[in-house]
Amino acid sequence: MTTGSIIAADLVLAVLAAAGWLGAGAAAVAGRRRLASGLALAALAATLGRAVTTIALARAGWWFAAEKVVVAAPLSLAAVVVGGRRLLRPAPVAYLFAGYATTGGLLVTVLHGYPVSVGAALLAVAGIAAATAVTGRLVHRRTSRTGLVVAVAALVAGTGFAVAPGTAPPAGHEHRPVAAPKVGEPTKRFTLTAGTAGDAWAFNGQVPGPELAATVGDVLEVTLRNRDIERGVTLHWHGYDVPNDQDGVPGVTQEVVRPGGQFVYRFRADQTGTYWYHTHSASDLGVRKGLYGVLVVRPGPVDGVDGVDVTVPVHTLNGRSLPAARTEVLAPGTPVRLRLINTDSTTHRYAVAGAPFRVVAIDGVDLAGPGMLTGTALLVPAGGRFDVVTTAPAALFVDGRLVHATGPVPPVPGAWPVLDPLTYGAAAPAPRTGFDRSLTLVLDRGLDLRGLLPRYAHTVNGAAGPGIPAQVVRRGELVRLTVVNRSLVVHPWHLHGHHVLVLSRDGRPPAGALWVDSFDVRPGEVWEVAFRADNPGMWANHCHNLPHADAGMMLHLSYI
Ligand code: C2O
Ligand code: CU
Fold it and tell me: Can you list the domains of the chain with their CATH numbers?
């Protein structure tokens, strides 16, 4: 069983336990003794079952189990002792107490999660004690003094802990971007004008925006203009590790470009590979509506290179899948390079049929010793890029839809196994020691009460953006970043300004050197990656499922 499925199973058991005890209590109040006993028995089984899932989660990593061990387990124990004793002699208040206790444990997981907080635990106890006292009053016309005292004491203490200022360092409030070194005279100039185009938003009237192609060593100058996008625009060079003041994050590295305004980006193209650009202002809406395009930096001029080089930026625009299918018939044996780019917020599945292929680069970085593949599907994370090299005739399918063909189209591939990039490529040992700093991101959901309205946020380390303290590094450090997903959905993680080297996933190191800037952290997974802190500034660090980023899953990495 994967950790992700244990997380789900634990949640189901917690719901069954809480519902069972509450149902048993209600049945007992109504005088339906047999039903009450039956429900209590089921609830007892579910409550005890959680011991198994909690232990399994603790073994997978403390992040997955902390609040379950520290808060939910003692509450479950209380439920078992109080409710379990009355299994055959239904007692409404005992069952309902067990129901409140298991519900309290469940709410601490669902609303608060990791890390454990004394405040949340005390508030749960206050709620349970108060509910039990009220129940006792209603059922027996007796008010329990102890219950009330516990409730009030826990409420006062819990509120105190909950509102007490955290101990997080007030780092990263300095939002001045680090100025770029001089890059010299531009050798390539582009202008991108953002504007509404029907129900889409477009650069230069087209979706995707113009493809920006450069040769390594070029100095790019891109003038961004905003014609009429009221939410403002910027350009972020996804995966391109530009100097901080060119990174395009509004409010952090630059002011947003308002209608009528402009901003000029300049940077040297010194990384080759496949990248993309997109607005970072209201980015969920802006990217979805079409403010994105491809950036390709080639090692040399394309003429004279044998074969074809095709970019495939996949996007869902108002329910329509882009790009439209295209066929260019080539002489059999012609080399074909397909640059797969996922500009959506969720993973896409790609399949190359008709000819063997290799994945020669991921996220712009060439792989060493990529083996030949056939009958293997590729999962590209949101924001990620895979460069595939094959020969004509071959066909590319995305989620079962034909996108590109260089000859007769083979049948749609079936349920092919998926390539795991961690088992692909020639062996290259990664560093295991020598880190100057370790940072951890625990991804989850939780209640965020900081704004005007409470929201059920996507959280990092128990907080939601913009309230997540920045993580801090010092220039030159080798940093280990651990990303833990204790939620039930995939989070494609993306750190700006740095490529990261994968150290391990769930403790297993990759076969080859795998450098990425966008990686899918699936439910229950633990990724360890490393990067060199060699690009000073204030960098966004977020989930690239952009609705998640909007809903809180966004923090910053800053240099001290
Ligand atoms: Cu493509 Cu901050 O992201
Ligand atoms: Cu996410």
Answer: 3-167 (no CATH), 176-302 (2.60.40.420), 306-419 (2.60.40.420), 437-559 (2.60.40.420)
